[in-house]
Amino acid sequence: MTEQTSLAQKNKRLIVRLFSIIGVMFCFGFALVPLYDVFCEFTGLNGRNVVRSEAPSTLIDTSRTVRIEFTTSVAPGMPWRFKPVTKAIDVHPGENKVVKFSAFNPTKHKIIGQAIPSVSPGLASLYLNKTECFCFNQQPLNAGENVEMGLVFFISPDLPEHIKTMTLSYTLFNVSDSVSPPEIAALF
Amino acid sequence: MNTTTTADSHEHHDHKPKGIMRWILTTNHKDIGSLYLMFSFLMFIIGGAMAMVIRAELYQPGLQIVEPNFFNQMTTVHGLIMVFGAVMPAFTGLANWLIPMMIGAPDMALPRMNNWSFWILPMAFTILLSSLFMEGGGPNFGWTFYAPLSTTYAPDSTALFVFAIHIMGISSILGAINVVVTIINMRAPGMTYMKMPLFVWTWLITAFLLIAVMPVLAATVTMVLTDKYFGTSFFAAAGGGDPVLFQHIFWFFGHPEVYIMILPSFGIISAIVPTFSRKKLFGYSSMVYATSSIALLSFLVWAHHMFTTGMPVAAELFFMYCTMLISVPTGVKVFNWVATMWRGSLTFETPMLFAIAFIVLFSIGGFSGLMLAITPADFQYHDTYFVVAHFHYVLVTGAIFSIMAAAYYWLPKWTGYMYDERLGKLHFWTSVISVNVLFFPMHFLGLAGMPRRVPDYALQFADFNQLVSIGGFAFGLSQLIFLVVVIKCARGGEKAPAKPWEGAEGLEWDMPSPAPYHSHTTPPRVK
Amino acid sequence: MRKIIMISAAMSTVVLSGSAKSNSESSTINLTQGVTDISQSVYDLHMIILTICAIIGVVVFGAMFYAIVNHRKSKGAQAAQFHESTKVEIIWTVIPFFILIGMAIPATTTLIEMEDDSASDITIKITGSQWKWHYEYFDHDFGFFSLLTTPQDQIHNKSEKGENYLLEVDRPLVIPVNKKVRFLITADDVIHSWWVPAFAVKQDANPGFINGAWTKVNEPGIYRGQCAELCGKDHGFMPIVVKVLSEADYDIWLTDQLKDVEQAKQDEQQALASTLTMAESMTLGEQVYVARCAMCHQVGGEGIAGAFPKLKGSPIALGDIAAHIDVVVNGKPGTAMQAFANQLTAKELAAVITYERNAWGNDTGDVVQVSDVKPEAK
Known about the structure:
The complex is a heterotrimer.
Chain A (H helix, E strand, L loop, with lengths): L1 H42 L22 E9 L6 E4 L3 E4 L5 E8 L6 E10 L7 E6 L5 E3 L4 E10 L9 E10 L6 H7 L1
Parallel strand pairs in A: 1-9
Antiparallel strand pairs in A: 1-3, 2-4, 4-8, 5-7, 5-9, 6-8
Chain B lengths: L18 H7 L3 H29 L10 H36 L7 H20 L27 H28 L12 H32 L13 H18 L2 H15 L6 H14 L15 H29 L8 H24 L1 H7 L3 H31 L5 H28 L13 H30 L36
Chain C lengths: L1 H15 L20 H34 L15 H30 L6 E8 L2 E6 L4 E5 L5 H4 L17 E4 L3 E8 L4 E5 L4 E5 L5 E6 L4 E7 L12 E6 L1 H27 L4 H15 L1 H4 L17 H4 L2 H10 L15 H13 L11 H8 L1
Parallel strand pairs in C: 1-5, 4-10
Antiparallel strand pairs in C: 1-2, 2-3, 5-8, 6-7, 6-9, 9-10
Helix pairs in contact in C: 1-2, 2-3, 6-10, 9-11, 10-11
């Protein structure tokens, strides 16, 4: 009798431990989402540009220039015309630069857009610092409205030597559906 | 299949119901093992039928039999069924039948949970298969269900797919818990860890892998559900998500999953080869350490499925090196099996034939795996038929052949009768020849440039595709021989002694054949 | 040891490349050597690894078959008693480990070579969508779609298949030989993958993100590849064709293309001024519909239940014209319906919408004009 009870007890303890591993691993699956973001910040893994700078740079490395190209894509369901005003510029690492992107809403409705950045090569995203970017916020445009949106950035002076060209791409999405009417009213 | 002869001195009255209720309510590990095995064979046939549809369409260039969207459903559901419905339940069935007998336990630790673990499986697969008949069709995004193809662009049946996976996952997790608790707490006195048969070891390690990664699959599939139906953006760039994130989370589960599907095979081969070599397994402790290393390493290699997603070089190198490393402990195991055979006294009954075929053909799968690990080369192999060849070698001539070897090996113990050796050998030879006609040319197709998951192909791929399809039909038909062997054996034949195989070792061979419905009711003393 | 491997590699090369004729032609059983330095390195790496694996296989299986033949009970073999040896275990752990290091070195070198995409001469932006590719010449701000041209008749076995069945497109990507070409790869909807075996370039096209790749082709010619990531029903029907021209020919081609772009702009202006008749629209509209819409909405407008909505008798085609135009021109977010604003000319857009509103018994009598479409589209 005691043997059986102690077996039942041993089993119960082990089962509880195993279920807690299961619980931990289930949460770990979800935790991988923020972990991925953290990892990307560290390694530039997928070119997701997450470097937001508070202050513009003060140190400029005049010994070399880096070519930075700009390209845009418009996602399906987003009718705006969205183009970089400047296609490419050569900058010194550490130099503050402003570039513009033009956006035009040719439809008869208000539309809210969200620009998502991506950098190639991925590693370069760690060194691209944005002081101000239209991609930080959702962008509202009225029907027929035309706007030039700015990006203020600098490239870190500690950019690795072997990176001489990088491309910053923005994909513009229509996020009007995900914004509630009071929020829309506040935006326009 | 079951009589109530017991080896014990106690008279045991079994008040089990007759007929179908017996099977529905059973908590007996032997019954549940049989249920799992029969279910898995049924799934093998259904998944195999889908493969036949695929091979029939690919017999010639052009679209003859099915439309591309249905073809994608076939490839998807074929994969899901084979992975979750055939291979995993078969191994669980073997675990149920054999582990208690091998360690001297009277049953699994949690017999009622064991019953549940099985019976939710037919539910899950009914849900999955019925989704094929929905408007818009069943899942069509590959068994790997990458987002956003499986979220924004997926048919309505995706919800059913998600639920089915959740249920299968729960079944596997509960089964794994049962295995771990049984092995850790219910070994007979004297049965130390290093005396356990390797099959028990490999299942113990597999069960830990299951406990670690099936919950991650559950999380993945939940995120797909919420992205599709509840407005989250885990995998959509617009909302700040990333489709590549899906791949990381999925393959964190996916890679250990494929080791889950092969480790029990290693245990089976490690039981069969020594028996028919009449020689102890060479390097028992090495085998245990090698299996553990493989399991640990399996957590570090997941991104080798993602070399073309745009990873930085450092990451690609890390995953390349770790993946290459896995071939060391795997190679050690192969060498140990060969060393077991070396200077043994070999006979070649059907289980041994399948085991030998396993060693050669699984190793071929291992070689193509090593080639795939080499990142620059993988850029040419990835998503081609070369990969299809690789995983079918390790899964069909690997896992499935080991399951058949196990069936032949232990059928006498389960049924009390010897199976028909001539039919068994016929099954073996037709299978081994047709399986190679089916999968070997796929290496060439992949190298020559044929992508995977396509219902049609350019003309230079036609000849090999035709050959492959013929191999496929032949292999499918050969499995009917296996069905005949099993049914015939269950119904009668030459009576099997307790130990039908001269060189066999292990507690299960000390009891009569068929094994008593309740065995080890008093624990044996293990020296 | 190295010599043995190199000789075996050479022998395997001879054996396996038996059916290959030249670098730019493909084998039916082996990887192509391709037409770039990288593709050649990849091929060499592949052959070395394959040879090493073959040698190991021969040795290990050889030992096993030796045992099968000579250590069988029927031959009177008596089983030996040994069942462990730490020494042997260490040896056959360490030796494979060193073999792996031997493999890892050339693999690492080749990988690092492949990842260096600096100092390129041209940049091409490649966008994958269901089920076609778009190529944009970065420095010249022009681009075009590249669609499969194999006729449905051939696919459905009603006519004989052409030589480049499933590997032919209307407008191939054109690049110059001997120049480093950089690719920026992205997608509009699901994940696709851009693969040209002859260049050994394969990179996934992830929606919302860009990936980089590069190539430098040594030989002019036409090279064909396919999408390499399951992307929906026509995954097998969106090939890649790259035409590599001499520098001089490339310059001529580029100039012609830019002229065509100018011409198209002028045609657009003219179309705006003119009026489309029902007959004109139905003819042009049907052509466009069959080529660009029928793959999902089906030739008879009936769609595929649960996947692609029907147009025959549908509220969209029979209802508000502006709403219909909006869906076709701008797409529908959250679904597979793409924006056709940049894929068709304004005239084609007007015609196809007219066709949809009048075919299959829809008979609305509406004739959409270019100016109706224009403010939305451009």
